[in-house]
Design brief:
single chain, alpha/beta, Rossmann fold, eight-stranded mixed sheet, globular
């Protein structure tokens, strides 16, 4: 444990709009190792990581950076409909994030589609990405994912569920939900895979998945593990669903902590 974590808010200017970010800096013994960058899921934002970034910074002694993607949380609205190449597009946006935050070297950790984006970033920024951790990420479109999204969409018909989404995304909440549902159910996405991005990854990679993930079978992390450097088998979290950082944050951190320590010791 490294003591109290200091949070610093910052704004990142991009050609399409300004992004909101939080930097979590461990106190006590100070910052050690290269920073960890978090990528949120399709309905997520910085606030929905809850206290996971602080816990991660405290346990690892590393700076932890989380930012709201364009269209989400406290970042600017996305200019138009979300394109089907939005995962690859985020790897381009990250170049601006990296430059403005002076990230020479970094670790990427992404949840769900944020894990897909983390992989795309790792493949695009091979000169700086030291390690990649995917959590509940998708590697291809499968029926379980599509069914889970439709079920969630029906839940958001309840006013209280939509109100919770609006609490975090404001008047962008409708766009956030539509972007998630419509993109995954679009014709261009029917045969989507993450293979091309995974093929570009050169850094050690750890795929983590909940045993009972309602949005993706265990074939998803196995595909990621098979196409990237690192452990040949994914790390499966027993009795866990799609959101390990809320369901079992301590177990999630302990699942990848030795992996990060091994990278730092290289």
């Amino acid at each position: 444990m490294t003591g109290e974590v200091e949070m610093r808010e910052c704004r990142i200017a991009t050609p399409a709009g300004t992004l909101h970010a939080l930097r979590h800096l461990p106190g006590g013994a100070g910052v050690t190792g290269i920073p960890i960058v978090l990528m949120h899921d399709s309905l997520g934002c910085v606030a929905l990581w809850r206290d996971f970034p602080e816990r991660l910074a405290e346990v690892t002694g590393r700076e932890v950076i989380a930012y709201d993607r364009l269209g989400y949380g406290r970042s600017a609205p996305y200019p138009g409909a979300q394109p089907t190449h939005f995962i690859e597009e985020e790897a381009e946006t990250f170049a601006v994030v990296r430059e403005q935050l002076a990230l020479e070297r970094f670790v990427m950790l992404g949840h769900s589609v944020g894990g897909c984006m983390a992989a795309a970033i790792a493949g695009r920024h091979v000169d700086g990405c030291e390690a990649l951790v995917t959590v509940a990420a998708q590697a291809f479109t499968e029926p379980r994912t599509l069914v889970g999204i439709r079920e969630a969409q029906r839940d958001f018909a309840m006013p209280e569920r939509m109100a919770r989404l609006e609490k975090h995304h404001g008047d962008k909440a409708g766009w956030v939900l539509e972007a998630w549902v419509e993109t995954w159910h679009s014709a261009p996405f029917a045969n989507w895979t993450l293979d091309a991005s995974l093929a570009g990854v050169r850094c050690p990679t750890l795929a983590i998945h909940g045993e009972h993930d309602e949005f993706g079978s265990l074939a998803q992390p196995r595909r990621i593990a098979s196409l990237t450097p690192g452990p040949a088998e994914p790390r499966i979290l027993p009795d866990c669903g799609h959101v390990p950082h809320r369901e079992c944050p301590e177990r999630l951190i302990e699942a990848f902590r030795p992996f990060l320590e091994s990278i730092q010791a290289r």
